[in-house]
Amino acid sequence: MATLVLDNGANTAKIGYSQERVSVIPNCQFRSKTSRLKTFTANQLDEIKDPSGLFYILPFQKGYLVNWDVQRKVWDHLFGKEKFKVDFADTSIIITEPYFNFSTIQESMNEILFEEYQFQSALRTNPGSLSAHHYFHTRPSELCCLVVDSGFSFTHIAPYCRSRAMKEGIRRINVGGKLLTNHLKEIISYRQLHVMDETHVINQVKEDVCYVSQQFYKDMEIAQMKGEENTVMKDYVLPDFSTIKKGFCKPQEEMLFSGKYKTGEQILRLANERFAVPEMLFHPSDIGLQEMGLPEAIADSVQALPQEMQPHFYQNIVLTGGNTLFPGFRQRLEAELRSLVPAHLPVSVLLPDSPITYSWEGGKLLSNHPDYDEMLVTREEYEENGHFICEEKFDI
Fold first, then answer.
1. Second label for 178, Cα 20 to 30 Å away, from 49, 59, 156, 322?
2. How far is it, in rounded angstroms, from Cα 22 to Cα 368?
3. Ordered strands of the 2-8 beta sheet
4. Are 186 and 273 in a shared domain?
5. What CDD domains is this protein classified in (predicted)?
6. How many folded domains does the chain comprise?
């Protein structure tokens, strides 16, 4: 029987059969300024000629799946694609959901998977569990790990021991990629250009130019310097979607006031925004969120766990989610944790090669686990016992 692994994130869905490669596809619908009447779903985004003023219709709000109409359309599109062509009666699905999900959302998901799509069997879990499974698979001698999952809506810290989540240690920071992009839109709109409608473009700017500062105040000083001394400043050429399809950074030598700019290029000049935006992950109070930053939240999470296990968690921190791809993220987190953790305890932070698909890969490994069949709920079991059997088996 085929196993389909679907890491159903609030921004992207990571999907693929367990014996194939993963595809990362937008988990939303779009409408564009130019074709208002037409709605594009998931990877149909590539068909939009002019994605300026792109309007997103998201199934998730504040990290929870609330718009089932949009989610169904995305799933219909994915499951019907040539590449996946799901034969539901002969397919098992591993699907992810947020930590501490609402039971009403869980029941709706059970109904859709079993009654509408009629999957043969299903396993509902959270991305952290799959990431932990992946980590323990690659390091079989380890018993504990701490998954830091910094995604679109939130950043979660979840400790695992022998693949079981230790719920007393789970922490959430209400900062994710969506908030960072929105903050960057506000800063640019205030300082330079009105870009409040350009979520798609500014998200690309964020991914291309932002980084995590190792010495915030020093970088702030550099960002205020004039001319060539200002190594922080970058000029970003915005796309016009006719000649320039995708925005890009100007090379340093072209940038420095050489007057070499082509007419018609629309330039964003970015200085301290480059590191002040990702800084919110470390200091949410910068924008008035009364919350701990990431290093403090990790220390708080570990301190809630049994003392004899704490050294093992500090030594096995694994980063997942798109925000961990900011240059300097891992180094800064490790350095700040080092200053918070007792000197005799080792601190080790691992950034996998692909933090976005890390939990999907964990699902792929899980589908080959000898106990996999016992974790599933089959359609017959669901028809016989209803939601009760899912609650019992999917203890998350």
1. 49
2. 16
3. 23-26, 12-17, 2-8, 91-96, 121-125, 377-378
4. yes
5. ASKHA_NBD_Arp6
6. 3
Structure tokens at 285: 């109070």
State in Å, rounded, how far the first CA of the chain is from the last one: 25
Range of the domain at 209: 177-278
- Listed residue (147, 170, 178) closest to 62, CA to CA: 178
Q: What is the pTM of this model?
A: 0.90
Q: Which residues of the chain have pLDDT under 50?
A: none
Among 278, 304, 321, give the residue marking a domain's end.
278
Plot region of 181 (φ>0 → left; ψ -120 to 50 → alpha; else → beta):
alpha
Q: Please name the residues in contact with 199: beta carbons below 8 A apart, sequence gap of 6 or more.
A: 54, 56, 181, 182, 185
Which amino acid does the sequence have at 387?
Answer: H
Backbone angles phi, psi at 63, to 5 degrees: 85, -5
Helix (H, G, I), strand (E, B) or coil at 149: strand
Q: Does 164 fall in a domain?
A: yes
Q: 53 and 64: one domain?
A: yes
pLDDT digit string, tens, across residues 348-394: 999 999 999 999 999 999 998 888 888 899 999 988 888 888 888 88
Exposure string over 41-73, b if 16+ CB within 10 A, otherwise e: bbbebeebeebbebebbbbbeebebeeeebbeb
E strand or H helix that includes residue 302: helix 294-303
For residue 32, the SS3 value is: coil
